[in-house]
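Hi U.,

Before I forget, here's the chain from the pilot set. I'm dumping it here mostly so it's searchable later in email.
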Amino acid sequence: MSIDLPGFADPVLGAQACFRAVLTAMSRPGLIQRTGLDLTPPSPLAPATAAVLLTLVDAETTLLLAPSLAASAEWIEFHCGARQGDAAADFVVTDSLPDLAALESGNDECPERSTTVILQLAALGQGTAYTLAGPGLAAPTRFLAEGLPADFLARWGANHRLYPRGIDLILCAGTDLAALPRSVAASEG
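Structure:
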């Protein structure tokens, strides 16, 4: 039974460490952080994905879980208490990039009311190369990720043009995480 698998060994310290990792990743797009090292979540959930969920998701948030990750639903519900959501959910957890235009992107008065996508990938630091530019980056930065779709740049560009509205991505692979806030532009290589 998946709820038998524990969350953080020390919930306070674990959540604080993961929160710092997420904040660093959001403020320095493309910078890979490590988290979830002490977690063994149910398959197919990666430790970094589980750590982000344990840190950011609770009974006050809504969560849309991709069917491909449904085997972890009981564990997430037990440890996080999140309510089931739809395309307007606070968080979407998936292993394939959803249609960003179909998700809640906030509005001009409240851009922060947008959905955050927690996207589980095959790998970070290897795979397809992207160049990131924007806030938090002193100069354009190279970022590698394995598992983003071939049309990622077009889809991300459409999302980026909505700024200050738009979707933020938290990318997770194994115990690695990185972030692409809506404010950052991405291009080839």
